[in-house]
Amino acid sequence: MADDPYAALGVSKTADTAEIKKAYRRIARTAHPDLHPDDPTAEARFKAASAAYDLLKDPEQRARFDRGEIDAQGAERAPRGYYRDAAGGRDDTYSTRGFGGRQAGPDIDPDDIFAQFSRRGARGNPFEGFGGFGGDARGGRFDMPGQDRHYTLQLSFLDAVRGTRTRITLPEGGDLAVTIPEGAADGLTLRLRGKGGPGLGDGPPGDAYVTLSVADDPVFSRDGDDIRVGLDIAIDEAVLGAKVPVPTIDGEVNVTVPPGASSGQTLRLRGRGVSRRGGGRGDQLVELRIVSPATIDDDLKQFMERWRREHAHDPRQRQDRKRKAKP
Amino acid sequence: MTRQYTAEQLIEAIPALTPDRLLSYVHLSILSPVQTDAGPAYREIDIKRVTLLCELTDDLDLDDNALVIVMSLLDQLHGTRARLDTVMRVLSDEPPEIKGRIAGRLID
What we know:
Chain B: This is Chaperone modulatory protein CbpM. The structure holds two protein chains of two kinds. Chain A is 27% helix and 21% strand. By secondary structure, chain A is an alpha+beta fold. Chain A folds into three domains: 5-66, Helix Hairpins (Orthogonal Bundle); 101-135 and 142-214, Sandwich (HSP40/DNAj peptide-binding domain), CATH 2.60.260.20; 221-325, Sandwich (HSP40/DNAj peptide-binding domain). In chain A, a hairpin with a 5-residue loop joins strand 2 (164-169) and strand 3 (175-180). By secondary structure, chain B is mainly α. Chain B has two domains: 1-61; 62-108. Chain B has five helices and two strands, in the order H-H-E-E-H-H-H. In chain B, a hairpin with a 2-residue loop joins strand 1 (34-36) and strand 2. The longest helix of chain B has 29 residues, at 64-92. The A-B interface holds A 80-89, 91-99, 116-117, 147, 149-154, 156, 168-169, 171-172, 186, 197, 213-216 and B 1-2, 26-29, 32-37, 41, 43-45, 48-49, 51-52, 68, 71-72, 74-76, 78-79, 81-83, 85-87.
């Protein structure tokens, strides 16, 4: 059936119930397959009209269709959602909604922050602060600052953490060099002064805003300035302790697993995390996961059976004690 | 990371969108895909934005110039609103005497 029941009946959206009924009867008269056995298109027209009439004859259904809650087949339709639902939110890279953020530096002058919000601020009215519509408009001179441009750049996890130099493609062709600072976080917006659209006349060019979208990494994840990784260790390494290679954002390093390590235990590698603004680095947190061998051979089985007989040990006892200690 | 769509999936998802139209919106800098190693990618917010752009084009008959101006104003409005929300959130964390003083100044 057609997506527009009004069109199927040939009536306007404002038609009243009587008009709709009349339109349906007219089509039923001229298109009923049984009344027009030789017209191959009659059946389709008749079906469309009767489905449309079924929907529109009920004022409540018709109102729901008009509001977009159900489709022409009467099926519930997902609410369509409007741009304003997402605008101004975390993913809105089109509007300038921050207050300078990272670029503001450690010594923030409150007046600078307030100025960004005021009409006299540089970002407020583009016609203020540099002479407005300068020159003689009748002489054909017209000054206007260029448009700000907004871009979103997706980076790999490691590029974002280590910092890199890359280029973004401009819609009009060509590209623009972007320096990603070390430790760049997902959602960070970089402002490239004067790299937006060209100004008119003596107007300055606009700025380019590049918002970073950091892709997930299969190995590393980020927790503030700290990097988290999981490290699989064998049973013998857990019991006896071991030196095991572990990936860090600077490459592989050896980490000492203490004897008697458990799954979930976290080792801290100081200074192996993300660079902080103003110097220093976070840590890397390595979470141990004990992994049993894929096949348990007879040796291991026999050893474990003997060990269990002679050294009964119930790790859940500690859990039970904790639970009882709690009121 | 939010879900991403290719240009083809975007065109598939929005009936009024054609490849030419998508190209034109990007050229006008009123739509900006995420730049990835695999080429341009679009997010949920871009689907909603393109739906709005198509409606402004088709239903309101806006030409390219008008479309650029409307979107620029709209983005400024949303940016300003988001900043105002931030200011209000920050103010609401302040102690009552500071909130009272600011409220007093606002109705002056």
